[in-house]
């Protein structure tokens, strides 16, 4: 494997030294959802690194052949062994420092049967006042839930897109990272 | 390079036979925009395959280290040598058969100076009634422009997400491909 600029390109890529195949490494989509059952949200306690033992919404890397909503439903099945009706796309978060784009959907649990999949230690329904905020796995999950509860209180869900940037050990949320306005 | 299921995974991946590096191939994001100047839209005539000689909105593969809106602005620079003010995310299209997710933004040209970049034969501003509909390069571009003009006529732009699926030689637009309702 070599690292050089292919013909007709403008940046270096991984190229197989034997067969010449170029392996493009581009941002990956993490697709997930907010599974709701009677005002409660289903969270999963992670059985894998990173953030082993912390709580997350079901989400994971979108695979080839899927749509983003199909990926969100598959990840919910893999992490919580339950079916969801995926509804509208709710938030898109760019995480340029780790080359990820989160796409989180509104969703309803089809039943209240669920159980931890291979990647979860435990799955549990939480009312808003029970959410374990300090034990959430990722800033993307915290912000998704904050936007969700804010919109639910306001009576209407509104699509949002934002950038999450890590600066001096803190994760900051911007409408756009080039514009110095932090979303609160 | 071999093709097998890595440890702790559930599907085959490209793995370097020498060093064991796993190369994940996931859906790629194509980021672009609708560059507007005084009611006109900037289109670029493609100087590259696929669809050499047909017209497109500036768009291309998002690269590591970027946000989607930064990628859209960079692609506009590369294809039309002009700066845009990127505004809201307007449409997300899933293309599961070719492993792409389009993210198209509303945008305004900062100036009306532009010229064809390396990937364009020509760049031109079009009023709605001049758009060369039969010569647009991709269904994603056609649908983006249709949604744009519909919302502009209606006085408000509304975020949309949809799936574009190829069936019997035709590209069909669905709210969700699992739901048999075609978006018109």
Helix percent of chain A reads: 10-25%
* Dominant shape of chain A: globular
User: Approximately how much beta-strand content do the residues of chain A carry?
Assistant: 35-45%
Q: Give me the oligomer status.
A: homodimer
Main β-sheet description of chain A: 9 strands, mixed
Gyration radius of chain A, in Å: 18 Å
| Backbone structural class of chain A | alpha+beta
Instruction: Report how far the terminal alpha carbons of chain A are from each other.
Output: 44 Å
- Following the backbone from N to C, one meets helices and strands of chain A in this order, namely EEEEEEEHEEEHEE
Question: What's the number of helices of chain A?
Answer: 2
Mean pLDDT of chain A: 94
Largest interface, with counts of residues having CB < 8 Å to the other chain, equals: A-B, 40 and 40 residues
User: Which residue ranges of chain A are poorly predicted, with pLDDT under 50 across at least 5 consecutive positions?
Assistant: none
């Amino acid at each position: 494997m070599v690292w050089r600029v292919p013909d007709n390109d403008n940046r270096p890529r991984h190229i197989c030294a034997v067969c010449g195949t170029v392996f493009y490494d581009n941002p990956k989509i993490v697709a997930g959802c907010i599974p709701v059952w009677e005002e409660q949200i289903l969270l999963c306690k992670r059985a894998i690194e990173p953030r082993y033992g912390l709580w997350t919404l079901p989400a994971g890397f979108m695979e080839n052949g899927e749509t983003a909503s199909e990926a969100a439903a598959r990840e919910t099945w893999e992490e919580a062994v339950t079916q969801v009706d995926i509804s509208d796309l709710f938030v898109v978060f760019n995480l340029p420092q780790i080359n990820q784009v989160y796409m989180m959907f509104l969703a309803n649990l089809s039943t209240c049967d669920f159980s931890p999949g291979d990647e979860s230690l435990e799955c549990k329904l939480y009312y808003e006042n029970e959410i374990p905020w300090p034990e959430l796995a990722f800033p993307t999950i915290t912000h998704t839930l904050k936007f969700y509860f804010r919109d639910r209180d306001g009576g209407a869900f509104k699509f949002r897109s934002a950038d999450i940037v890590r600066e001096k050990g803190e994760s900051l949320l911007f409408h756009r990272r080039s514009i110095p306005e932090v979303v609160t």
